[in-house]
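Q: what sequence does this backbone want?
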């Protein structure tokens, strides 16, 4: 893969420190992505995910949403809640809750957990970033109102300069987005991923379809080769005899990026020290020689990035 060396200059200057980094084309594209997708189809519930690292993030992460990796840097979206939404007794103007107040963040941090940059995104009641993805040139990110059936702004961010560009707006809560490098279109999921969207880069809806899988709600999606995408998320299930606590069932899913049909899915039964499913918030998968690495940030506020690895047998 082509490697680009750049100085982040003022964009990533913290105090008086300016650092240079290297980054490469999208890590899960091309042959590497095809291998990732192939290995993913051999994953089962019997795979053992061994925790390799626990990186304490040296900043308030608020409520993380999506994550992607560019070279040795991690980019993570998050929503800072200033005023919580409140559900209405009856819908008001098509909404089921108040808009609340908040701030949308795109954090950049190192493998040691040091914060390099905090980019603010959104405006007014549109402050909730979703899942993000890197296409080799730009990081794509949706920022929506924190309520279903609302509205969103779609941005792309240059990871070298950290300059953001509004691409288009749309009338729904877009909870995650990525660019299909093969077709040049944008694939997106709605609130709870119950609806799939395909947009062109002007925001025209090219296709809209129901998500036929009800296993998990997708939180974060990333390309996996030319023909696939991998999504992660959870579903909350009631526990018998417990009225207030719900069980978080985590999982991963491989989708055909053209049809959005399910190719392979499986539960992930890993939990953070705070009891959250590992795939609750951001997830990024990476191909290795023997298997897969999974980076996750399941907890809010004072978070840690948990790094797991599994060996994949093709037999």
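A:
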């Amino acid at each position: 893969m082509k490697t680009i060396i750049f100085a982040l200059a003022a964009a990533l200057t913290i105090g008086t420190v300016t650092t240079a980094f290297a980054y490469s084309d999208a890590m899960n594209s091309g042959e590497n992505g095809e291998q990732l997708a192939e290995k993913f189809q051999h994953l089962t519930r019997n795979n053992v995910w061994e925790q390799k690292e626990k990186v304490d993030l040296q900043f308030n992460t608020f409520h993380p949403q999506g994550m992607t990796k560019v070279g040795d840097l991690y980019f993570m979206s998050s929503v800072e809640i200033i005023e919580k939404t409140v559900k209405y007794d009856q819908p008001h103007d098509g909404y089921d809750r108040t808009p609340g107040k908040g701030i949308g963040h795109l954090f950049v941090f190192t493998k040691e957990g040091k914060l390099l940059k905090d980019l603010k995104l959104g405006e007014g009641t549109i402050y909730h970033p979703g899942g993000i993805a890197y296409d080799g040139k730009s990081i794509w990110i949706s920022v929506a109102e924190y309520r279903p059936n609302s509205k969103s702004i779609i941005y792309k961010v240059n990871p070298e300069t950290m300059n953001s560009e509004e691409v288009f707006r749309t009338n729904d809560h877009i909870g995650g987005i990525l660019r299909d490098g093969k077709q040049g279109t944008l694939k997106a999921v709605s609130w709870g991923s119950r609806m799939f969207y395909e947009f062109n880069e002007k925001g025209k809806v090219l296709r809209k379809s129901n998500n036929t899988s009800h296993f998990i709600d997708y939180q974060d999606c990333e390309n996996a080769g030319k023909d696939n995408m991998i999504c992660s998320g959870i579903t909350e299930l009631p526990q018998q005899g417990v009225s207030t606590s719900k069980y978080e069932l985590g999982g991963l899913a491989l989708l055909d990026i053209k049809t959005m049909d399910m190719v392979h899915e499986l539960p992930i039964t890993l939990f953070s020290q705070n009891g959250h499913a590992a795939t609750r918030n951001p997830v990024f998968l990476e191909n290795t020689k023997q298997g897969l690495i999974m980076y996750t940030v399941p907890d809010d506020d004072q978070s840690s990035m948990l790094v797991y690895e599994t060996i994949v047998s093709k037999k």
